Amino acid sequence: MSNLEYRIQTLEDIEAIKQLKARYWFACDQRDVSAIKDCFAKHDIFIDFGFIGKFTDLNEFIALFIEMTGKPSHIDLHHGLAPEIKLTDQHSANGRWRMQFQLIETEAQVTQFMGGYYLDSYCKQANEWKIQTTQYNLTFNLMMQKDSIGAMKLIEMGAMSGLAIEV
Questions:
Q1: Handedness of CA 104, 29, 33, 65 (dihedral sign)
Q2: How many CB atoms lie within 10 A of CB 96?
Q3: What is the distance between the alpha carbons of residues 23 and 123, in angstroms, rounded to a whole number?
């Protein structure tokens, strides 16, 4: 492969990884379990979401995901920002992403704004990039709940972990 071909392939691979992560977050927001599963490698995955849990079995992660997000009152939005992706060879790469998460839980009348960063590794399987490992590191968490008079009261602010579904 010539230097120019290598550089073009590198750019195409990095873009494919960006598209993969965007599909993953959109699938989470849409509760599209099949699309979420399709984003991950077939074997040897590791998901570390800190206070939410650690998983080596994708189906166990999906079961918790459905339990946490399976109500129509749970509306969330993942925003991935500032990707830093480095290919380690033709079939593997590492990435770091900033992520901001917004949630409105209409039943519990809670809103949450959480931020942090992901550390990921990716592998190319059957000429398609997949998430091999992913680790979410919480940087901040802001959670508020509507009180009896309609005002928002602060539940958490800072780097504390927690989820609106726990309120």
A1: negative
A2: 15
A3: 16
